[in-house]
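Render this sequence as a predicted structure.
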Amino acid sequence: MICNKCSAKNDETHNFCNQCGNRLEKPKKESPIKEVESSQDSSSKLDLGGVQYGKVYVGFALVLLVILGTAFSSISSPGTLNGDPAPSASPRVVPSDVLSEDEILALSKEMCTSVNQSLSSEIEVEKILAVVKKNASSVAKASKDAWSSLEWKDENPSWFSGESYSDQVNANIKVTIASNTERLVKPLLDAEEFEGYMRSKSHWTYLLFQPVVYACGLTKTLETLDDYDSNLRTIASQAENLPWYPKGFTEIPRYPGFALGKANGSCSYSFGSCAIFNIVSQTACPTSLYVEANGLNGDVVTSWGNDTARVAAGQVARIEITFSENVDTWEMTNINCY
């Protein structure tokens, strides 16, 4: 190995010159890729535009171009990628992209004549509102519990077929918006914006719905109809899902499967106080339905008592629990079914 400083000859294993002490630098090896390329003859290379390329690298490049071409063609060609529509040449636009707030409000107001005329002639919304106002109280009352819902539904079956009032009115407003938007918006947009609108017409209908409802003064009308139809949906659901216990009873939160109801009467004994109530069990208690309660004065337990009954599933039992002294209130402490 020759020292690049003093030109002295050194062994290949030396790291420093044995004459001047300079650090020896070993000659760098040629790149393996370069060696491979230099070992190939002219028949293994292609001449493209005056530059020679190895066949291996040209082949790899062609394969890569095919893969990329396929990927880009799947994106740019008609059809879908991952289920999404291919992007259009012209941009989609929504009202806020191309119209100011004042223009959107003016556009909404311009639709009011057509909207109100359609609601009056095709839907007869005033008659609908009259019917709703007449029945709103009874419908609201019927929605309060399942048994009232079932009774009201059985008496008024026609209310639970066909489209709801709010759905009919909403659909009519949307159809009217859709049929008038193109005519009213075209003078407001340039050619490119209008083409974008044409590609997203249904989305404009969705976005203009609330501004039109507000501009035409229909907010209160839709709220009234929606509240009414919401109560009807509640009635239908409750009527189809009656609880296991009878009307007038309430399931005891701490003791699922047992429901409590009011009972009339006075204490059988002259001393102390008593708790009198009706109870029903979801399952049969052929040996004993055992009920226990504490008597309280304020927050202090001052006495306790119990009572039993034998009942079939769903059968109501009248329970009387007597306390040894007068109490202010009582609380259930134990229920068992044997």
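Summary. Residues 29-89 have pLDDT under 50 and may be disordered. The longest helix spans residues 101-123.
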